[in-house]
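Example for tutorial group B:
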């Protein structure tokens, strides 16, 4: 497999020229601006959905259990379909799949708006809509990775800009949803959410990006494509080792973090304090994205692993029972660490993996990363009952430190060299 340079027989890590060999290319091309706008709009809409879903279902007397089932339907079908979405993305074209997925979600969210507007809300129907949305998201997600290197020569700068915009969108989306619920009810939020998918589909369709075309019966079949993607994923030690460690974090830190931190902060300091801390988390993530646009380490995953030492600061601060200012500081540090790591990781995947298999490999790493999240979420309550919520959160923070150390000890991860923009 061609990677643009000789490879190490042990970890197949490409040996690249020094990342400072070429001047940094211009970031804001027409196509990248369209893709950036599409991602910002989509993330704003996605940030609105949990508020609308919770408010709408609770208003119809379905309780927290109904909200959980609707969200679980989305998550389960997303994880189950994203690998197949990677095959289709590489086979039919990433942008084509993304546009189709957005159009499907215009229909599903429009249907949800009609259900809530008329008051004929049945839980199984909402779960079916969630399942279809999960499948559409599985078809959409592989393109997020494979399109960026084709619309931006400065891949790291592009990822930093996108990460920053997404973090800001997660702050704007819930606030906008709360306003719309208060003025128009949950149905109004679903109308706006459907509109964000329509706008996203239009922006993606305007990108000038040639798509692969494969005639019927030409090339390997779907199963062969799936096997090839797995083989490419498995051959990269630096990639699958990170995913295995991320699965540990999903159980110990990410899964318990959201339900336990929200409960502890709201019960101890009130809902307003939780809103403030959540804003600090989003602001920190945006800061991490901006920092990743400026800092260009020779070994990106090494720098990212160092940053990960701060990723557990939020969980640790809540676990230690600190006051609101220190909770906000911990959340900001955690957000910045995760934001910086996310750009280093995504840029490494996009620049180290050949374009023809990038969609499938990204799908495998997303599926692997998220597979254990429901396990961590499900175990959070029982673990908190046995050991106390603060103890579970402290364990998650310590686990994050341990994962950062292990990443630095793994030679394929530690020594993965950045690819200069001229070689993307």
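The residue assignment follows.
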């Amino acid at each position: 497999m061609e990677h643009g340079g000789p490879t190490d027989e042990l970890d197949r890590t490409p040996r690249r020229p020094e990342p400072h060999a070429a001047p940094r290319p211009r970031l804001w091309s027409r196509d990248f601006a369209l893709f950036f706008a599409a991602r910002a709009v989509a993330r704003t809409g996605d940030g609105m959905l949990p508020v609308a879903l919770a408010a709408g279902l609770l208003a119809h007397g379905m309780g927290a259990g109904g909200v959980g089932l609707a969200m679980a339907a989305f998550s389960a079908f997303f994880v189950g379909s994203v690998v197949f979405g990677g095959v289709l993305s590489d086979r039919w074209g990433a942008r084509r799949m993304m546009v189709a997925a957005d159009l499907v979600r215009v229909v599903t969210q429009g249907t949800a708006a009609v259900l809530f507007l008329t008051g004929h809300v049945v839980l199984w129907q909402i779960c079916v809509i969630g399942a279809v949305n999960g499948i559409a998201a599985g078809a959409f997600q592989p393109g997020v990775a494979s399109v960026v290197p084709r619309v931006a020569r400065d891949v790291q700068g592009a990822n930093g800009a996108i990460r920053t915009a997404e973090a800001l969108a997660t702050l704007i989306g819930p606030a906008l949803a709360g306003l719309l619920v208060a003025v128009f009810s949950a149905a109004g939020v679903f109308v706006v959410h459907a509109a964000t998918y329509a706008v996203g589909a239009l922006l993606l369709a305007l990108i000038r990006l040639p798509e692969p075309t494969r005639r019927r019966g030409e090339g390997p079949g779907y199963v062969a494509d799936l096997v090839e993607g797995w083989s490419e994923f498995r051959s990269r030690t630096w990639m699958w080792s990170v995913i295995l460690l991320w699965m540990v974090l999903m159980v110990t830190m990410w899964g318990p973090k959201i339900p336990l931190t929200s409960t502890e902060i709201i019960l101890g300091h009130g809902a307003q304090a939780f809103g403030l801390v959540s804003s600090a988390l989003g602001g920190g993530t945006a800061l991490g994205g901006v920092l990743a646009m400026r800092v260009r380490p020779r070994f990106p995953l090494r720098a990212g692993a160092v940053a990960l030492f701060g990723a557990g600061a939020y969980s640790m601060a809540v676990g230690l029972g600190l006051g609101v200012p220190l909770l906000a500081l911990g959340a900001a540090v955690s957000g910045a660490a995760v934001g910086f790591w996310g750009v280093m990781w995504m840029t490494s995947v996009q620049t180290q993996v050949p374009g023809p298999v990038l969609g499938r490999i990204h799908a495998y790493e997303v599926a692997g990363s998220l597979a254990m999240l429901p396990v961590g979420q499900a175990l959070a309550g029982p673990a908190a009952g046995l050991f106390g919520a603060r103890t579970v959160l402290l364990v998650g923070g310590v686990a994050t430190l341990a994962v950062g150390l292990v990443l630095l000890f793994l030679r394929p991860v530690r020594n993965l060299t950045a690819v200069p923009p001229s070689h993307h």
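Residues 1-22 have pLDDT under 50 and may be disordered. Compare this with the pattern of hydrophobic and polar residues in the output above.
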